Amino acid sequence: MRVELIWIETIQHRLPRYCHSQPSAHEQFFLAPRTNSTAAADPPVSTVYNSLMSLTEQIQKDIVTAMKAKEEARLSTLRMVKSALHLRQVEKMAPLDEKESQAVLATLIKQRKESVEQFTKGGRQEMADREAAEIVVIESYLPKAAGEAEIVAGVKASIAEMGSPTRKEMGTVMKNAMARFNDAGMRVEGKMVSEIVKRELSGK
Hints:
By secondary structure, the chain is mainly α.
């Protein structure tokens, strides 16, 4: 009973998933067979992220690729990401820029990491593995996460700018450090930043 409650609570706090059984009109266009029999064969599909495309364009392109390759798990994840981005755009009532799109993906990753932890504790390893696999797909569309050394350097720089903050000002240090990482386009784990801030302020 407890495991089922964990599962229900996990699903309730997450953005809705949209796993359409039928391709959209846009997808159907790209999946339609060629009528010209003399057309050259399609070139190999690259899996490298194209920085010249917007995040939404890249995901739409990869949805078509996943459909052609019949990669159901990847297709389901990409459609969910596309729907989450669309939902955020509707809420904003304007197109998302790259930072806003990346923020949506970062939220999806955070939600899935929480789900992995809950499913693992509840003994539902299959569900935990599924969430972990989704994380891998989503992370491929984000900049590489900053390492501990980079985070430590950023936290120390934020502390230096403030002079000599104490542990009572941890919240302010955390806020300034996260703003610094965001301005630099660095992807960081909030939990790791918090732990490093605590460590750097220990004894102050």
